Amino acid sequence: MNNDFEKTAEQAAAFQKIWAESWSKMMQSAFTLAPDSAPPDVLRQIRSGIFQALAQSWDEFMRSPEFLERMKQWMDSAITFRKMTNDFLARARNDLQAPSREDIDSIMLSVRHMEKRLLDRVNELAEQLRQLNAQPTDGSGPGRTVRTTAPKKRASKRATTRKPRT
Question: What is the pLDDT along the chain (166 residues), one digit of tens a residue?
Fold first, then answer.
């Protein structure tokens, strides 16, 4: 327990040292001005000095072994927590006799495949319909094909001819 406390205190001291150095660099860069510079230039120099000092201090901080170790610990903890919650939820679904996540995923995959096949078939049918509508027509409307045989003539009700009256 005492060893953990000492380790934490050392890490806190290293963190404090990084921030103290960054603040001192910012103040030094902010107040190293040329006496003959105009006020807007002074403000630009202060701003660029502060940004440069911040960028440098953050770069040092993020590359420090303490920060990298903490990030590794945090990521390991997040992964462990995720695995524990997945296991807990899987057990709960199993106890409730509900379908598992893998079952639901496989059903969703099957539905997606079926949907794709149906859409492909509908596209094929639409293309066939487009081709049928593009065939030559006899002018009687869209999509009507030209007759290959001549229509039969209907027999007239007047089969006999009348003689003219004289």
Answer: 577 778 777 877 877 887 777 777 766 665 655 556 556 777 788 888 888 888 888 888 889 888 899 999 999 999 999 999 999 988 888 888 888 878 889 999 999 999 999 999 999 999 999 999 988 766 555 555 555 555 565 555 555 556 666 5
Contact between 70 and 78 under an 8 Å Cβ cutoff? The reply is no
Q: End-to-end distance of the chain based on CA atoms, in angstroms?
A: 142
Nearest to 54 by CA among 13, 17, 14, 19: 19
Which residues have C-beta within 8 Å of that of residue 42, sequence separation ≥ 6?
A: 33
Residue-wise DSSP of 49-91: HHHHHHHHHHHHHHHSHHHHHHHHHHHHHHHHHHHHHHHHHHH
Global pTM value = 0.38
CA distance 47 to 27: 11
Burial of 120 (0-12, 13-18, 19+ CB in 10 A): exposed
Quick check: helix, strand or coil at residue 145?
A: strand
